[in-house]
Amino acid sequence: MANRTHLLNTPILTSDPYLLAARLSEPGTDYLEVAEAVYKIPVPWLLCFRREDFLPVTVQFDEDEEGDAPAGVEVFFPVTSVEKALENMTQSLPIFEAIAGDAKLGKMFWQNAMITLRGLPLPYLCINPIEVMFMGDHAPYMESMFAAMGRDDIAVRNLMDLSAYEPGVRPYPPDVLYNVATKADDSYDENRLQNCVALDIGYSSFWIKSTGEQRAHYEELVSFIDEPDVSPNFRTLKNELTEIAKARVKSVMLHLGFAQKDEASPERLKLLICPETEADCNLLSNEKSFKEILDGHFCNSFKKLCQEYGFSWAGYVIRSEESVKKRFTGDYSIYNEWVYTTVEAPRVSAAPIVARDKESREQLEKKVPEGSPFWEIIFIIVVLILMLWLALSTGFIKR
Fold this sequence. Notes:
Blueprint: E1 4-10, H1 17-22, E2 31-38, H2 43-46, E3 54-59, E4 73-81, H3 82-90, H4 93-100, H5 103-118, E5 124-128, H6 130-133, H7 138-147, H8 153-162, H9 174-179, H10 190-199, E6 206-208, H11 234-246, E7 252-259, E8 268-275, H12 278-285, H13 288-309, E9 312-318, H14 321-324, H15 335-339, H16 353-367, H17 373-393
Parallel strand pairs: 8-9
Antiparallel strand pairs: 1-2, 1-5, 2-6, 3-4, 4-5, 7-8
Helix pairs in contact: 3-5, 4-5, 7-8, 11-13
């Protein structure tokens, strides 16, 4: 299991995870896991704190095979009030911009962090980095956390190191992280994605509940992507298009993902529209008003966002869930049509794309026969010239 760090929203002013766990036996001591991260501490977490916010914590170790437990190690973890964290974050916009290398992109991550902090229901905020800190020597790791608390170049370098941010690589915007499916292939840039994770505050909204009397209501964190200030985005466009499609067919799902590409090519975003049945698929594909809206407003909106985010818009495909599910039963024939075949926006058809491409090739082959008479003529001319030169040089033909 991967080692993780945790950003916690707590009812008491402490950065001691052992104390938080012990207090769960008391009613009303529930606390919220705001987010978790794997092998890193994201930049926004650290920007919530200052050096004076670090308090001592004694890290405890499990017993060994002989039943002996090593002595605890004293370290320092940060804790502050949510109010103070908001104040610190308000002053941190220039750091987001400097790390992202783009003012507009940096502001997206900063806004995300601000919206998340404003929505926290409990009064205090702390980081639990134990699992990652003790993967190696804890002392240099703790020193790096202290150094990241400044607002100078040294702090920025430590923020990048702790968050595993790769310098010089433009991160994807958070819209991609939350709304575009990625898989282990070459369709997207893993470094851009990891830099996005490093600048994102994260979203978990998982409550650790106390025993005894439970709260009547556990508040869910507000996702920044749902805020009016950050629309339109991929989620709002998907939701809007889903509602329009559902007015025409009973059930439909929309999926955003990156189409496969050459290694040197930019990422290409593709939209898969999945009615439940083949009948609904045919109905939606041939519905004139739906295609007009899709080809106009939605394709233009998706294309504009793609351009802003640094990749291209590959278009959309309508396929029934029945056909797409064949991928998971070992039949890749239909699935390959929308994953591996380039789709230029706007283009919608109920007919298989591969079949149409094959038909085009057959028509082209009929029009253009194999070989080219131009090169045959050139070859004949060159041969004749060589024969004439040989005849002249040997005296076979008198000058």
